[in-house]
Write a structure and sequence with these properties.
Helix content: 55-70%
Oligomer: single chain
Strand order of the largest sheet: 1-2
Order of helices and strands: HHEEHHHHHEEHHEEH
Structural class: mainly alpha
Mean pLDDT: 89
Strand content: 5-15%
Number of strands: 6
Largest sheet: 2 strands, antiparallel
Number of helices: 10
Length: 315
């Protein structure tokens, strides 16, 4: 694993680990790349929608002067709003992922808030959704149109972000995988991993290892971040290919909700997570949200397909 950039340089060039490059954390680096990827594809889609007429010019008033701008000129601002609100939301939701984390928050809320560990992706998506919705409403952009334009970019960003989880070994791995079955013909690293030098510092100490990160799991577990990256890229491909065919506002977005919820719901079945005891069954925060996200996606897709107003066919 590569907790920070110094470990990448160590494997590539033989330089000592834990050097000056350790300031660049791999998870943070991949998160930044994920945000840039999302911004890039969002810009492409907004420009396409401008060209086919589904997104119009906006009137912006500043210092008493009104000017016309195109929505793509606000992609940078939208990305910043989404990134900041998303990180805040992910951190806040992480505080309530389990009964234990809630107890820790109650005992020491300040430390829990400023602690660098713990991010819940659904918290980021939910808070960013409301923050961006408020922002684009102020700009005069139709919310459903923006949701449709944003959906594919969210999925590609999610997939790239999960690469950071895998490379750093941040604890988002699966349950014990057991021996690889004969029918699994793909490489061993796609079946299980012990996450040596994981940034979560879980497991037992590795022999002949020096440095800050020397822990490795005792048993191979499912590399669920890899699974999610693959699934996210597949879902991105589906949304990107259908964005010109599903022409009613909201269809692409609600399809995204359904596929995202479905993917995460089943991944949670093989992923290590804190759970809530709901009596008849136990479920993680992500499982609960994924379930309702899937239902919202299906219900929304049916509704906008039957009731929504179609836009001119996109080229």
């Amino acid at each position: 694993m590569y907790p920070d950039l110094s470990y990448v340089f160590h494997d590539l060039f033989g330089t000592p680990a834990d050097n000056w490059a350790s300031i660049v954390k791999i998870f943070g680096l991949m998160l930044a790349i994920a945000i840039l990827c999302s911004s890039y594809f969002l810009g492409l889609e907004i420009r396409r929608r401008e060209q086919n007429g589904s997104l119009k010019q906006l009137k912006v008033t500043k210092n008493g002067k009104t000017t016309l701008i195109w929505p793509h000129e606000k992609v940078g601002d939208i990305t910043i709003v989404a990134a900041i609100s998303g990180v805040i939301g992910a951190k806040v939701f992480a505080l309530f992922e389990s009964v234990e984390s809630i107890k820790v928050f109650i005992q020491d809320p300040i430390h829990s808030l400023i602690s660098g560990s713990g991010l819940a992706i659904y918290g980021g998506l939910i808070v960013a959704f409301f923050a961006v919705t408020r922002y684009v409403k102020k700009l005069g952009i139709n919310v459903l149109d923006m949701c449709d334009a944003t959906a594919p970019s969210l999925m590609i960003g999610y997939g790239v972000g999960r690469i950071g989880c895998q490379l750093s070994g941040d604890g988002d791995w699966g349950i014990v995988a057991g021996p690889k079955p004969d029918w699994f013909v793909l490489p061993d690293w796609l079946w299980s991993s012990t996450y040596p030098r994981n940034v979560a510092n879980e497991g037992v100490k590795m022999a002949q290892c020096a440095g800050k990160y020397c822990m490795e799991l005792t048993q191979g577990v499912f590399p669920t971040p890899i699974f999610e990256t693959i699934l996210a890229f597949i879902i991105f491909g589906i949304l990107w290919s259908l964005r010109k065919k599903l022409i009613r506002p909201g269809q692409i977005f609600f399809l995204y909700c359904a596929l995202n919820g479905l993917e995460r719901f089943f991944i949670e079945k093989i992923r290590v997570n804190d759970t809530f005891d709901l009596g008849a069954f136990k479920a993680s925060q992500a499982t609960i949200i994924a379930f309702f996200l899937f239902l919202i996606g299906i219900a929304g897709l049916i509704f906008v397909t039957k009731k929504g107003q179609s836009v001119p066919k996109m080229p």
